[in-house]
Design goal:
Layout lengths: L10 E2 L8 E3 L2 H9 L4 E3 L2 H6 L10 E12 L5 E5 L2 E6 L10 E5 L3 E2 L2 E2 L11 E6 L5 H11 L10 E6 L1 E6 L3 E5 L2 E3 L3 E15 L1
Parallel strand pairs: 2-3, 3-15
Antiparallel strand pairs: 1-4, 4-5, 4-15, 6-7, 6-13, 7-10, 8-9, 10-11, 12-15, 13-14
Length: 201
């Protein structure tokens, strides 16, 4: 069951289940969740959003949501993400030019709090839009402020919340699922899967 405001998340445990694997990146965690395996979270943006627990011991078992990413034309699954899906210009320009769209499950992205109200088990996704007109100087400033989550509000940044988002990806853009690039042009649908898997921290 997804968490509700004011509720405790998860339950205390003294050890992880015997079938649990250790995930050192968001992509490793997503692969395990897709395979139905519980995961001890020890790396990635999801790990940062949980307070960066360290060591082999665990103290809590929790359910997390995931992002199901599919082509809209034929329903083909592009992959599963547990932290973030990013749409941006390809590497030459990256986040410094053109639009950028971040759909986040956990709120953390590359060390900053991009979507500060996101929660990995609230049954919804948070979307941050960077307007294509935003200058590279303003983007760098917003990035520094995002370390504390103070980059919002901003006239060229917008945030929305929902269970599903559809984006038309252009030929000069890439889609990154938990850091892994996918080449796709056309409609991409990103939908939350509530309680997609179990993690330990």
């Amino acid at each position: 069951m997804t968490i509700r405001p004011g509720e405790d998340w998860g339950s205390p445990v003294s050890s992880a289940s015997s079938s649990a694997v250790i995930g050192y990146s968001d992509a490793e965690i997503a692969t395990a969740i897709a395979a139905g395996q519980p995961v001890i979270v020890r790396g990635g943006s999801l790990h940062s959003s949980l307070g960066s627990p360290a060591g082999q011991g665990v103290t809590r078992r929790m359910s997390i949501d995931a992002i199901d990413v599919r082509r809209t034309d034929n329903g083909e699954r592009l992959g599963l993400a547990v932290a973030n899906v990013l749409i941006r210009r390809r590497r030459l320009f990256g986040m410094l030019r053109g639009r950028a769209i971040l759909v986040s499950n956990c709120g953390e992205f590359e060390g900053v709090s991009a979507c500060p109200r996101a929660h990995p088990n609230d049954g919804r996704l948070d979307r941050l839009n960077v307007d294509h007109k935003m200058s590279s100087r303003q983007r760098r400033l917003a990035w520094r402020r995002a370390a504390s989550g103070s980059h919002l509000p901003h006239p060229e940044l917008s945030v929305s919340v929902g269970e599903c988002f559809e984006v038309i990806v252009h030929s000069n853009e890439e889609v990154l699922l938990d850091g892994h690039s996918q080449r796709v042009v056309g409609g991409v649908n990103m939908a939350v899967i509530p309680d997609a898997g179990v993690i330990f921290i």
